Amino acid sequence: MTASISLACARRLERLLRTAAFILAAVLAPVAHADEGIIRSAEVVPGDGGYVLNADIDFTLNPRLADAVNRGVALFFTTELVIERPRWYWFDRVEVERSLDYRLSYHAITRSYRLSIGSLHQSLDTLEAAVLTMQRVRNWHIAESAALEAGVVYDVALRFRLDTSKLPKPFQVTALGSRDWNLGTDWRRWIFQPGTPGLQ
């Protein structure tokens, strides 16, 4: 009797563990897929009356995303930056929080790709050229000089991702949990001290 109860409990536990493993795999799969891109280099340097960011981001549009653009669906991307001041006695304080937004679309009449970066717009002949433009962030003004205190060491975090929240509603539903629509990078983290070169 005791042996049969123990066996039943063991089988039940095994089923629970298998179910938990399946759920965990389902949850982590999209997250792992989001690591398709990588930030190769990033730095904060003085410039433009304050501080600017330069970065090189390595990513590719998978066939699903490329096909969506070529069929007339606009894709939205964002580069997100956070600069925090560490505090030993409390939570770190966010000093700078910025985002650089991109809108990529295809115009069938002119057979060109239109890339909007903030309020700037440009037309490009190929999808590859549009992607290359997004991969190179140069002289992005992120803060005034007074926003960061000289001699203080700050924590900087940067990432790039596809912003599915701005897609048309039907595509938002499709993108939910889909690996093909989960393009992005991990956060790239480094320290920066005004008055010294940023660590790469």
Automatic annotation (TrEMBL):
Residues spanning the signal sequence: 1-34
Gene Ontology molecular function, alphabetical: methyltransferase activity
UniProt entry tagged with the keyword Glycoprotein: no
Domain of life: Bacteria
GO biological process: methylation
InterPro entries registered for this protein in UniProt: DUF4390
Keywords recorded for this protein, A-Z: Methyltransferase, Signal, Transferase
Protein name per its UniProtKB record: Ribosomal RNA small subunit methyltransferase B
Source organism (scientific name): Thauera aromatica K172
